[in-house]
Amino acid sequence: MNSVPEGIVEHILSQMSNARDIASCACVSKRWKDSVPFLPALYFPRGVFDGVSRADADAAISHMVSSAVRLEELVIYCPFSAASLASCLALRSRSLRRLELRMDSAADKMSGAEAAPGRLDAIGSAENLEALKLWGVSLNKSPKWGVLQRLRVLEIVGAAVRDNALKDAVQACPKLVELALLGCDGCSSVSIELDCLEKCRLDFLGSANSSLYLSSPRLVLLEVQGFSWIRVNERHCNVYKVDVGKLPDLEYLSLRGVQWTWNAISSVLQSGSEVKHLLMKIEFTGDLDTLQAFPQIDLVDFFNNHQKLQKFEIHGAMFAALCQKNSLKNLHSRFSIPCLEEVLITVRSPLNAEQKLNTLNSLVKYSVNLRKMVIQISKMRNCQDIADEFFREICKFKHMNHNIVHIE
Question: Which residues form the F-box domain (predicted)?
Fold first, then answer.
């Protein structure tokens, strides 16, 4: 190593982040010790200070952080005090970009009810943070972070939270692109309104009556667990992935948007197989900027997979998918739609008119409890003769089923 140029030595040693390894290397020579200021990352493992007093551990953390003048990433899993954290973040507030803290390791050795909020509030001084990950934090009170304008990634794992405290913590990070709240407990209502959010993962424990409201127009990935009531604002243009797990108690499901990938649509429909009220108002599938029509949906398979469906609102693209050439190929005399009572269908195009009329007839014929079918055709895009002919056929269909079918 003595023959290696200074810059190369600094580069090699800067690849380390484990605090114990760095401390060992700093003892080798003054030359190696002088490389510490160039460290971009520091990682303090959970047991790195076992057998060492709290004061000595805090002093060691503060000393190493103060020495690393270009520090961009700080990970602390070992016990630490609020004072040492505040000192470290104040020293490196300009350079620090990524921060990860394990709060539960500190909580078991701290005394006093105000200790946890003190550690959490200290994060507000790291105003240039771009990524923040917290383990085992207690969010019973709103953190005093101010506004973290540069924060793009927030992940909170295994937290005890309260509704208002969580809402305030998220609102303090208005530019979030990725949000993950995993294994969190204590919330009855979660409201997230972030204009820049693209990826959101939520996994909540506890109350069986918890609710989620999410308003993020740029959302492309959504994974949800633990909510009995979910509403995602319909302003979303493009949704690429949705993972909500199995939802056996879900009764109402509304899917809205301009463009969802077919995998995202299929995932949600499979998760809500027990749903009683389904609204489908998505216009296109496809990836990125490629807008595509829905693929063919087999009518028999669809209703066999949604046997508890009582009310079905179908808008444009979904209805067209149920009216493809082979969508009715599996119909047979024993097939029935047992629970369907109301259907609202928006027809956006007169194309494929014969198949659409066959599908309407099949819905009436096989829905043994159908009481009302509303057909909305006022927004039909094509106003040429083909549309007039299709409208006449719809009127005949209504006349034959006048007790059930209504035209709007």
Answer: 2-35
SS3 labels along the chain: CCCCCHHHHHHHHHCCCEHHHHHHHHCCCHHHHCCHHHCCEEEECCCCCCCCCHHHHHHHHHHHHHHCCCCCEEEECCCCCHHHHHHHHHHCCCCCCEEEEEHHHHHCCCCCCCHHHHHHHHHHHCCCCCEEEEECCEECCCCCCCCCCCCCEEEEECCEECHHHHHHHHHCCCCCCEEEEEEEECCCEEEEECCCCCEEEEEEECCCCCEEEEECCCCCEEEEECCCEEEECCCCCEECEEECCCCCCCCEEEEEEEEECHHHHHHHHHHCCCCCEEEEEEEEECCCCCCECCCCCCHHHHHHCCCCCCEEEEECHHHHHCCCCCCCCCCCCCCCECCCCEEEEECCCCCCHHHHHHHHHHHHHHECCCCEEEEECCCCCCCCHHHHHHHHHHHHHHHHCCCCEEEC
Neighbours of 390 (CB within 10 A): 22
Which contacts qualify for 118-124: CB closer than 8 Å, 24 or more apart? 118/82, 118/86, 119/80, 119/81, 119/82, 119/85, 121/145, 122/82, 122/85, 122/86, 122/89, 123/89, 123/99, 124/148
Residue with the bigger pLDDT between 179 and 232: it is 179
Q: Are 296 and 327 in contact (CB under 8 A)?
A: yes
Indicate the pLDDT class of residue 207, thresholds 50, 70 and 90. Answer: low
For the chain, percent of residues with pLDDT exceeding 70: 92
What does the pLDDT read at residue 114? 39
**Residue of 397, 381, 389 whose CA lies nearest to 348:** 381
Q: What is the pLDDT of residue 258?
A: 81
What tens digit of pLDDT does each residue of 31-87 get?
788 888 888 999 999 888 888 888 898 999 998 899 888 899 999 999 888 888 999
- The pTM (predicted TM-score) of the whole model is 0.69
Q: Are strands 138-139 and 98-102 parallel, antiparallel or unpaired?
A: unpaired
265-316 pLDDT, tens per residue? 998 898 888 899 999 988 888 876 788 999 999 999 999 999 999 999 998 8
**Sign of the torsion formed by the C-alpha atoms of 357, 361, 364 and 368:** negative
| Confidence class for position 23, pLDDT limits 50, 70, 90 | confident
